[in-house]
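Hello again,

I reread your note about wanting to compare the complex against the isolated chains. To keep things tidy I'm splitting this into two emails, and this first one only covers the full assembly. Below are the input lines as submitted, including protein chains and any nucleic acid or small-molecule components. They are followed by the predicted structure of everything together. The single-chain runs will come separately.
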Amino acid sequence: MSLQLKPKAAFLVFNFMVIFLMANAVWWFILMERVIDEKIEMSQELGTSPEVIEQIYEQESSRRRMVVLEGVVFFLVLLAGLWMIYRTLVKQRELRQQQENFMMAITHELKTPLASINLYVDSLLTPEIAEQEKQNILPKIKHDVYRLKRQVENVLEVARHHGLTEKSSYESFNLSQLLGQRLDELKKFYTNANYRLRTDIEESVRIYGDRRSIGKAIDLILENSLVHNEGRDIEIAVELSLSNNIISLNIGDNGCGVDKEELANIFDQFYRAGPELTRPSYGTGLGLYIAKEIINSHGGTISVISDGPSKGIKFLIKLKRGKER
Amino acid sequence: MKKLLLAEDDRNLADALTLILKSQKYEVEHVRDGKQALDILEKSNFDLILLDIMMPLVDGISVCKQIRSQGNTTPVLFLTARDQTEHKIEGLVAGGDDYITKPFDTQELLARIHGIFRRNSWLTAERSLSAEYNFAGCTINFKTFEAAGPRGIHKLSRKECMVVKYLVEHSGEVVSRDDLLDAIWGYHNYPTSRTVDNFILKLRKIFERNPNKPVLFETVRGVGYRFVPPQKN
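Full-complex prediction:
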């Protein structure tokens, strides 16, 4: 059984402990000074000769130096310990916040398409709505169901990533091959999308990491391009190269692009960028966030550049090759 | 024809809602984020605002707070995915009139909308009380939501006006907290009886000469509250 303290309470106890220890240190020092003074006073009262008193004073002073030195070492060790506890507490608070955000993400991302399906089904059953309009509803329901399916997958991926389900399994694998597979899969799923693929993939680039997660991150970035350029004719460029043990994976398109001001927020949870009119209805607001989490958890970085609306977008991923353990 | 403003960022859900509401003979205007909602509310008047809480740019709660602070009293129905009690209270404290959790049924949604309109027309109706009511040197206007008490003029919220009107309509009778919740918040949406107590405390601060020793809005221990009509001289 583990003792679970609420972060607020934990910080309160922690602060109290720090203040208490500091106050104690001051008190001990005052106490020590007093003992020395008393000893000298007592000796004077007993009529001890000044030379002996001087000697006693010297002795006590050197003892005091020793005690102070030991005290300083003790406090340094103590402070190091406290610092570590403090960091753990901060980390715990962050994790808690992340968990709350995650719960909010699940709730929002799953309930919204469900609400929409629910209302559409009700509309089909409403006699006041014209037959012609009802005809348009079924594809919308289908669309929502697809969305829901994708959301469930994404949410499970976030859950997996936050260690809420099975632990991610690291292995050494061929990233070039995985990238090729993901591009083939994309063709199967987006049969209607108008996109050309331009690839420059260095062969046999190996990485140590979680194969499934990295595959998911690649999918999410590729899908981001397709989803935001629905109905457009675009070119997707994929480059993979290895130099100095750093793997560079760039995925870009020449599509709708993103306003420069919006770039900073693009990896945030729930954030959906893009011009209002062309924004697809099923932007998840989770995709790029998940991709970033995956890359970061592999010790890598992901950044994004875009020259503005309708000037395309490019994601730059840097990953360490990683040790094989 | 009642005119509704729908602020919802999800296009499919917004389309579905618009379809349903139009089939019920409501006029619907749709905006996709909090900023657009604030912009349109500055220019046009609506009979009801359907406000999603999680929206880009400005969230629904902030939109509601902001329009209330500008004196806009249009009823607000929050649409949201969150269903914890504290979130409901957050919405109501921000000045919302009701709260519906996704995914909701059409019937439930329509019932909530009707409920808001029904309570609203009860508040502004002049059947039992005229629009302006005077008591013990105080005034309350059930249409403009303005109130004058011993410490000056205050702008009340719709719910606060409703609490006063309900208690005044039942002058001298003991009204339980549950009765108030039923009549003002609707049976489905109990924000806990503590909320009622907070409303009464606020009303006492406005109308009572000494809010610590209330003579108009009395507490009936263990039951609820009673409005004691002042003796006319």
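For quick reference: The CA atoms of residues 53 and 59 of chain B lie 5 Å apart.

B.
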